[in-house]
């Protein structure tokens, strides 16, 4: 089992910045990749960014503005969000993807609210 816990959300004006953190505990040695998703009111959860296997991947809507990084020594992942827009308003979720015995397991955090005012 892996328990991801997000922090760092809040209210920011458009054009501002926030940094989200996701601290993972438990069987962290099984983690193969980590990522961020978000869900805005009335919309489906969508991928924001992932990090795994030495590569990163971003949604087109955040490329050039958001940066995902990991501190493996601390089992922590970050999402630096710059030039925030009102459409970035959502609950942001951390996901840790573990592989055990050839099976993939997804572990979700509880989410952290990001609100960008215009």
Account of the 3D structure:
The protein is mainly β and 118 residues long. It contains no helices and 11 strands. It has strands spanning 2-7, 10-13, 18-26, 31-39, 46-52, 55-58, 66-71, 76-81, 90-100, 103-108, 112-117. Strands 2, 4, 5, 6, 9, 10 and 11 form a 7-stranded mixed sheet that branches. Strands 1-3-8-7 form a 4-stranded antiparallel sheet, with no helix packed on it. A hairpin with a 4-residue loop joins strand 7 and strand 8. It is elongated, with a radius of gyration of 14 Å. The mean pLDDT is 95.
Topology:
Blueprint: E1 2-7, E2 10-13, E3 18-26, E4 31-39, E5 46-52, E6 55-58, E7 66-71, E8 76-81, E9 90-100, E10 103-108, E11 112-117
Parallel strand pairs: 2-11
Antiparallel strand pairs: 1-3, 3-8, 4-5, 4-9, 5-6, 7-8, 9-10, 9-11
Please give the radius of gyration in angstroms.
14 Å
Question: How many beta-strand segments?
Answer: 11
Percent range of helical residues: under 10%
Give the terminus-to-terminus CA distance. Answer: 40 Å
Low-confidence stretches: none
- From the structure provided, what is the oligomeric state, counting identical versus distinct chains? single chain
> Helical segment tally?
0
Task: Briefly note the structural class of the backbone.
Answer: mainly beta
- Major beta-sheet overview: 7 strands, mixed
Kindly estimate the percentage of residues that lie in beta strands according to DSSP.
over 45%
Write the element-wise H/E pattern from the N-terminal end onward: EEEEEEEEEEE
Based on CA inertia axes, which overall geometry fits? elongated
Mean pLDDT: 95
